[in-house]
Amino acid sequence: MPHTEREELTPKESNQLLLPGSHPPMWNHMDSIGPTGLPHREGVPGCSQEGLPYPSNSSELVLECLQQFKVTGTQLQQIQASLLGSMEQALGGQASPASAVRMLPTYVGSIPHGTEQGDFVVLELGATGASLRVLWVTLMGTGGHRMEPRSQEFVIPPEVMLGPGQQLFDFAAHCLSEFLDALPMGKQGLQLGFSFSFPCHQTGLDRSTLISWTKGFRCSGVEGHDVVQLLRDAIKRHGAYNIDVVAVVNDTVGTMMGCEPGVGPCEVGLVVDTGTNACYMEEARHVAVLDEDRGRVCVSVEWGSFGDDGVLGPMLTTFDHALDRESLNPGAQRFEKMIGGLYLGELVRLVLAHLAQQGVLFGGCTSPALLSRGSILLEHVAEMEDPWAGAARVHALLQDLGLNVGASDVELVQYVCAAVFTRAARLCAAALAAVLSRLQHSREQQILQIAVATGGRVFEQHPRAWGLPGPGPGGTNFRVLLVRVTAEGVKITNQIYSIPENVAQGSGQQLFDHIVDCIVDFQQKQGLSGQSLPLGFTFSFPCRQLGLDQGILLNWTKGFSASDCEGQDIVCLLREAIGRRQAVELNVVAIVNDTVGTMMSCGYEDPRCEVGLIVGTGTNACYMEELRNVAAVAGDSGHMCINMEWGAFGDDGSLGLLRTCFDASVDQASINPGKQSFEKMISGMYLGEIVRHILLHLTSLGVLFRGQQTQRLQTRDIFKTKFLSEIESDSLALRQVRAILEDLGLPLTSDDALMVLEVCQAVSQRAAQLCGAGVAAVVEKIRENRGLEELTVSIGVDGTLYKLHPHFSSLVAATVRELAPRCVVTFLQSEDGSGKGAALVTAVACRLAQMARV
Ligand code: GLC
Ligand code: GLC
Predict the structure, then answer these.
(1) CB of 737 closer than 8 Å to CB of 725
(2) Which residues form a coiled coil (predicted)?
């Protein structure tokens, strides 16, 4: 048996962050500092120079300014790697006092079992701005029904947030008793959980020392003290109730613990509210300070302070610096200040004030409100950024700030809000990716199935921008593999790299440079730098192949559209990119379609494997054809592998009768309308979209979601392939189907869930049957070619939809049996299929080349 060895998937990099410089701020030639902390021009108070013509190119100037908020895919990867590095350092206890993140163990050792019972009082401080919440929670165990907690919110006066600590805790004790006074139930022997969302050194479940205040709090005499004790003292001073403070938790921990069990265990808690942070379950043996070698412990990352040691430097804009200078904790919580809700409004305000002072917005006039700290809140930004918000609403919000709102201002302000929000969402995604990589690494698991509990107002009020990624920030993945083919078998090491969407759809040069960068990175990590290795390139797009190392790209498919590639020889483009990178030698020997690679890899073990099939993001097949039937190639004995590119079947209208209006909508919205008709009815990239269009239609008929269209359902690509596979799994109760949909932001009833399930089944069943029909045609063709009564043949298959969907593969097989009864077909699922196959093609090519030389 070939031996397959896998390396971890996530690139680990050193703690050094080298980010390409951001655009120079457009005002750095000026020197006077205005009330926003940013330079501004002299002239009429509140207005830029009188008579200054309103610039006609204001949208260009706004976009230019917003460039600074752009974070590239590479930068995100660097953040992910650097954060991961500092998490690991802190876990190992090697962090310096000015460490980037803190990794605080929380004394929570297991996630809830669902059997917990009893009445509890919860006091929440610090999660949501200047408010304090008291809750009464009744846990009913597994048998009982869920009770909605009762709660009351109290606003903390600003002087209390900045005054003596004792005053703050007295205020909390007072709120507690006011809340309890109003409750009808008995209040003997109360147990209290204290949710305290600031960085703390915990030394027990009920012992926790505040390290430093964050997020607008700065009460004296609390830092360095046990906050549980301070609360106990205050409750005693107040005297009305006898309450036992049993535990103190960070909000991230509370979020993780409160998550309803879903498909996987919930072992990550993520909060984006006033501040931002995450916690996750770490193996206790990895936490140096604990000196424990069994079990797991929940660790609060405290990623808000990431970057306090300067690694974020090149990414920080002038606005970030101004905001930091004016904050209560300059120099601290730099990452949080780019993401947390307390700061997003402030960032928008600083940008708007700057643009007004530059004469770009609001007729060149500011207003006292625009120049005062805190006048734009998270709620406002969320509302203005919402693309469905009417222009009138944005207009009104700006007028409330006393601004002089011109015709083009509304749209430009929306851009500003979007830029600030998008940056925050992307940074947060990169940070979450670091936590997930850490989990994957510490569990030593190739694939991590885990639920992330999310909480906080930034999520709740703004779910659209915060769609969560898996490990690695977005884009399409590609893999670099090192395959050693030896007498003992095949040995594979690989690493996944991502191709961000902007690269997949940018320039061809950029795309190929990125690919070469990743190959070189992989080579370095494998200690193979400087060696000229033979390279096989699995390139899964339609190509006209003129030789083993020559393939003209006919057209892009599957969401790629990089310029200047169609009609070009892909091997040349790759060689050119290698040439642009100095001191790298790579010898491109073969270019192979994924179907061919898959067939080859299975053929290594089963010589009857003469067909390759892919059902993943795209779908396609290849098979061994008689050379005499191939007009384009001379010779009439022997066989040749033909890449069918069956995805394009139907582009001439031959699938017309089968196509529904939903297929037409999906096609219209794709980047290649009219192309790949068969693929769009079968493969993973499109099935979720078909489902979504059907659900939209059913909603418009009033039979689903009570007829209410939600923004969420209007979002393209919310249903990934994985989703279809999950939802149709037989082991799921309808309740779990509901949970999955709710996770996607689609609240629904059980009837709705049943209907969604049926829609998914109909769509995936059609896909499997169409795919089966395609396979039947191929094997029948082989049988006829050879004039056989009966053909026995094997098919190598790869692709996530085929492999992960609970019913897809059996339905394909059943369809083939029905349509091609004279063929006995075995389906072989390939492991690392196409990559190994490409290596085999390359190995054969090298052997032939050597023989030719001899
Ligand atoms: C701040 C706190 C942290 C908390 C987060 C989210 O970063 O330091 O403890 O979890 O805000 O509220
Ligand atoms: C698309 C490509 C094809 C590839 C298939 C599966 O259909 O055009 O070359 O084999 O996807 O990845």
Answers:
(1) no
(2) none
Cα 433 vs. chain centroid, distance in angstroms?
A: 7
Rounded to an integer, what distance in angstroms lies between the CA atom of residue 797 and that of residue 620?
Answer: 10
Question: Burial letters for 390-407: b for 16+ Cβ neighbours within 10 Å, e otherwise?
Answer: eeeebbebbeebebbbee
- Of 831, 828, 847, 830, whose CA–CA distance to 485 is shortest? 847
Q: Which residues line ligand 2 (CB under 6 A)?
A: 540-542, 557-558, 593-595, 614, 616, 618-620, 645, 647, 679
54-62: long-range contacts (C-beta < 8 A, 24 or more apart)? Answer: 54/359, 54/363, 54/364, 54/406, 55/359, 55/360, 58/360, 58/361, 58/408, 58/412, 59/408, 59/411, 59/412, 59/415, 61/26, 61/355, 61/358, 61/360, 62/355, 62/360, 62/361, 62/412, 62/415, 62/416
Q: Could you confirm whether 540 is annotated as catalytic? A: yes
Distance CA 807, CA 760 (A): 12
Asked if 37 and 322 count as a contact pair (C-beta separation under 8 A), the reply is yes
Q: Which protein residue's CA is at the shortest distance from atom 9 of ligand 1? A: 198
Nearest to 593 by CA among 620, 572, 625, 565: 620
Give the residue-averaged pLDDT of 618-644.
86
From the list 206, 251, 409, 594, the catalytic residue is: 594
> CA-CA distance, 306 to 315, in Å (whole number)?
13
Phi–psi pair at 82, nearest 5 degrees: -70, -40
Distance of CA 557 to the CA centre of its chain: 23
Token code pair at residue 801: 């939809």
**Is there an atom of ligand 1 within 6 Å of 275 CB?**
yes
Tokens 């109730």 identify what position?
A: 241
Cβ distance 340 to 304 under 8 Å?
A: yes
273 within ligand 1 shell (Cβ under 6 A): yes
pLDDT of residue 349: 97
199 lines ligand 1 (CB under 6 A): yes
Ligand closest to CA 256: 1
Q: Could you tell me if the CB of 252 is within 6 A of ligand 1?
A: yes
Residue 386 Cα distances to 89, 326, 415, 417, 462, angstroms: 39, 28, 10, 9, 8
* Beta carbon of 250 within 6 Å of any ligand 1 atom: yes
Taking Cα atoms as reference points, which of 174, 135, 133 lies closest to residue 155? 133
Nearest to 248 by CA among 185, 191, 206, 202: 206
Strands 150-155 and 131-140: antiparallel
Q: How far apart are the C-alpha atoms of 797 and 803, rounded to whole Å? A: 9
Contact assessment for residue 176 and residue 185, using Cβ atoms and an 8 Å cutoff: no
The whole-number average pLDDT for the span 148-163 is: 88
Annotated active-site residue 479? The verdict is yes
The number of beta carbons lying within 10 Å of the beta carbon of residue 408 is: 15
Q: Are 781 and 775 in contact (CB under 8 A)?
A: no
Residues 6+ apart with CB under 8 A from 362: 352, 356, 398, 403, 404, 405, 406, 409
CA distance 486 to 484: 6
What are the pLDDT digits (tens) for 32-70? Answer: 233 333 334 344 456 655 444 445 588 889 989 999 999
pLDDT digits (tens, 9 = 90+) for 422-446: 899 889 989 999 999 998 888 877 6
pLDDT tens by residue, 579-610? 998 878 888 888 888 898 888 878 777 889 99
Choice among 540, 683, 809, 834 that is catalytic: 540
Which pTM does this prediction carry? 0.53
**Is there an atom of ligand 1 within 6 Å of 457 CB?**
no
* Partners of 153 in the β-ladder: 133
Q: How many CA atoms lie within 13 A of 292 on its CB side?
A: 14
Statement: residue 261 has pLDDT above 60: no
- Give the whole-angstrom CA distance, residue 205 versus residue 188: 22
User: Can you list the domains of the chain with their CATH numbers?
Assistant: 11-73+311-432 (3.40.367.20), 107-249 (3.30.420.40), 500-586 (3.30.420.40), 661-790+803-829 (3.40.367.20)
